[in-house]
Amino acid sequence: MTGPVVTGTRDVAGDPGVVGLERLSLNQATVKHLPLGEVVALCARHDIPAIGLWRDRVAETGVAEAAAAVRRAGLRVSSLCRGGFLTHADPDARRAALADNRAALAQAAGVGTQTLVLVCGGLPPGQRDIGLARRMVHDALGELVPEAQRLGVRLGIEALHPMFCADRCVISSLGEALDLALHFPADAVGVVVDTYHVWWDARLVAEITRAGSRIVSYQVGDWILPLPQDTLLGRGHLGDGAIDFGPISAAVAAAGYRGDVEVEIFNAGIWAAPADQTAATVRERFAAVLGGR
Question: Cis peptide leading into 226, omega within 30 of 0?
């Protein structure tokens, strides 16, 4: 995908919105069709120091081999995606979801990350009671907290854009995610700031400030128009869309987050492009848009 690159000429000295390439992480979803070993090699070739792993690709190789491959390449694992989908009215489905999330916590610890990203789940099948769905998420988190603490992995609640509320995530704003996280110990539950999902929120900077040390992951991807028919795939390379990343990055930095910054893009055109081209563009845009070049 090609498009405008926001390079700017601002003075970056002391600019809290500037993020250096040493914090760049490639979320595996950006090159979705590559197996884990090939993504690790891709990051190594393009001097991308961290990787956000996905559970399906980890399962293909096994946790131990996935962790070993990352270590051999000298990379960090910024997060594991994803747990969640906790909104089940059926008791058997609820037990299965909790078991799957406990397994995800163990996988996160096994690959060497302290962050498991959660997509909480939409409305239960056949139901319209969104308040009930949100209470289901709260109750499930309470059951997962002891295992998270035991393993030293934090559950990262990711708010999704409201258009995904019915089928993917009934937590639709960063403030809502934070309110939920604050019911639980800080060493077990935090929040994910994903620009694609939260950039529109008039209270975003205030909520990032309020989140402080609860921020466990910062993910970036641009909002492009026109949105595709499958709106899940409406993300673009940094600089190709509507998001002003500087103020968001500055707020995240001011809140105290110093971890990796994941480029996570769901886009059919980018998936179809050569992976080396995608990795080169990710690095170039990260430097241009977040690094102030």
Answer: yes
